[in-house]
Write a sequence for this structure.
């Protein structure tokens, strides 16, 4: 029965990190537990949802990538779903809603992701819908958590708020919540919040476990309008030269019960992707081919350095070779076409 937590043979409740149902309740999730070549199951498409319902605006730094209002997104995604798209990752973009120091509109009734979820679930009942969980697009300071008066991160208040947002998205209908904030302890906080709502067996946590402080995020911050108003994120995202911190970050999230884990960015961190795969062979592993990687390949191909197909195919192959089960990529529309044409 929904919302009931079963006990073991001794009458004890299972710990959150021992629960398996949240990783296999959907056919796509079950596919992520398996190793295959590049198929539509290995691709997740990032989608920006704008707080202007009828809008469609192109991201200047990412030609071919758009932000969609809730009244446009179904029509835009329908051809891709018909071509075999299996999963999407939603990002909210606010241009008219107010921003404050705690991200009040990260999960308000007017939040574009909250509004889009029931619409998308009704239109596409078979695809997996994941939601990025972070405060940076919704705070007036653009950082990923709640700040102290001196501008540093208040980790405890941050994970409390992030868990609230994750639970709100889960209650609105998403299958996967994906915390990208890199706060300590947020996976455990989210798991506990889902358990309190009886959602711990029907919503997965995809943690941005190994997220580096990278230069390759620039176009995304343009797309999501989420740049920090001061300072940077180096105090909570990982140093690019550190493999030891990457090991510890992944191990931390796995210990807290993450169902799926991620390395971000991709191409510059293939060694970290491989390291994470070797240390966590039993957990589906994602890699994010981030906005800067998209722009780099797009503009190089446009300049004639190589064909877009060849460049994207080689990058996808490298991700799979290093151990990724699923690749989050803005090239998903192209990839679906290439798969249909037998080019991948």
């Amino acid at each position: 029965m929904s919302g009931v937590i079963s006990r073991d043979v001794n009458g004890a409740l299972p710990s959150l990190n021992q629960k398996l149902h949240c990783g296999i309740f959907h056919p796509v999730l079950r596919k992520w537990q398996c190793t295959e070549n590049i198929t539509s199951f290995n691709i997740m498409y990032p989608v920006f949802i704008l707080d202007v319902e009828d809008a469609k605006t192109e991201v200047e730094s990412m030609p071919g990538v758009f932000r969609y209002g809730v009244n446009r997104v179904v029509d835009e995604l329908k051809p891709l779903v018909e071509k075999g798209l299996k999963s999407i990752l939603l990002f909210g973009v606010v241009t008219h809603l107010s921003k404050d120091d705690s991200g009040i509109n990260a999960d308000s009734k007017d939040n574009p992701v909250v509004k889009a979820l029931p619409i998308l679930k009704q239109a596409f009942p078979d695809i997996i819908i994941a939601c990025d969980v972070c405060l940076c697009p919704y705070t007036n300071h653009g950082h990923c958590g709640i700040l102290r008066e001196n501008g540093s991160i208040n980790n405890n208040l941050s994970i409390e708020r992030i868990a609230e947002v994750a639970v709100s998205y889960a209650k609105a209908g998403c299958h996967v919540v994906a915390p990208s904030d890199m706060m300590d302890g947020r996976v455990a906080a989210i798991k506990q919040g889902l358990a309190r709502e009886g959602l711990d067996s029907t919503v997965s946590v995809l943690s941005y476990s190994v997220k580096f402080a990278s230069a390759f995020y620039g176009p995304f911050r343009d797309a999501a309008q989420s740049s920090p108003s001061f300072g940077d994120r180096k105090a909570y995202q990982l140093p690019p030269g550190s493999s030891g911190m990457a090991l510890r970050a992944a191990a931390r999230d796995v210990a807290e019960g993450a169902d799926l884990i991620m390395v971000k960015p991709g191409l510059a961190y293939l060694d970290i992707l491989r390291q994470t795969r070797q240390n966590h062979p039993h957990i589906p592993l994602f890699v994010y081919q981030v906005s800067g990687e998209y722009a780099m390949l797009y503009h190089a191909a446009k300049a004639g350095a190589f064909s877009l197909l060849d460049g994207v195919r080689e990058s996808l192959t490298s991700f799979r070779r290093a151990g990724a089960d699923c690749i989050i990529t803005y090239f998903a529309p192209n990839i679906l076409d290439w798969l249909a044409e037998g080019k991948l």
Summary: The chain is about 35% helix and 15% strand. Residues 107 and 165 are 5 Å apart (CA to CA). The mean pLDDT is 91.
